[in-house]
Design goal:
This protein has seven helices and five strands; from the N terminus they run αβαβααβααββα. The protein is an alpha/beta fold. The protein has one domain: Resolvase, N-terminal catalytic domain (Rossmann fold). It has a five-stranded mixed beta sheet, sandwiched between helices. It is globular, with a radius of gyration of 15 Å.
């Protein structure tokens, strides 16, 4: 599998240069994992000093705990990270791991029914709610679930949004 979280990232923790990132393809997850149990984590922090703290490890651990508690399989190759990448200016969408993930979604390389786990909405976007809505809708519209680890966690999907209406 080639869902390397750092493959699409451009922050300090990135392992590939920009040219390698653009040429790298993303493969679908193993068919041995039922689609409804696939979990994908996305973790982001925006500044280099935060790399010295526990932001990334905390987000990854919380995603792992959520996946375990909900009988989801969080494969390390399905973890996307944007260390040191801003969401204010949408760098995480334009050149970061989140953008790579969304491209894989658009290309059908992420199984429908998979759950993207993020610590909070501001990991995805720091834009106004109206400007952030397209990212949310792109994820849900592709048939994915979105777990936001608020207290209590919130799970969004096409089904839950229909129930809310």
């Amino acid at each position: 599998m080639n869902f390397d979280s750092k493959a699409a990232g451009t922050g300090a923790g990135s392992r590939l240069n920009r040219q390698e990132q653009q040429s790298r393809s993303v493969s679908p997850p193993s068919l041995l994992i039922p689609m409804s149990t696939v979990a994908i984590s996305y973790a982001r922090f925006s500044s280099a000093p935060q790399a010295q703290g526990a932001s990334l490890s905390r987000q990854v651990e919380r995603a792992r705990e959520y996946a375990e508690a909900n009988s989801l399989v969080l494969d390390p190759t399905l973890c996307f990270e944007d260390p040191g990448v801003s969401a204010w200016d949408q760098s995480n969408l334009e050149k970061g791991a989140l953008g790579g993930f969304l491209r894989a979604v658009d290309e059908g390389k992420v199984p429908k029914g998979a759950t993207l786990i993020v610590e909070s909405f501001d990991r995805l976007s720091r834009a106004t709610p109206l400007d952030a809505l397209p990212v949310f809708l792109r994820i849900i519209g592709a048939g994915l679930n979105l777990a936001i680890l608020t207290n209590p966690p919130q799970l969004f999907s096409r089904a839950t949004l229909k129930e809310s209406g």
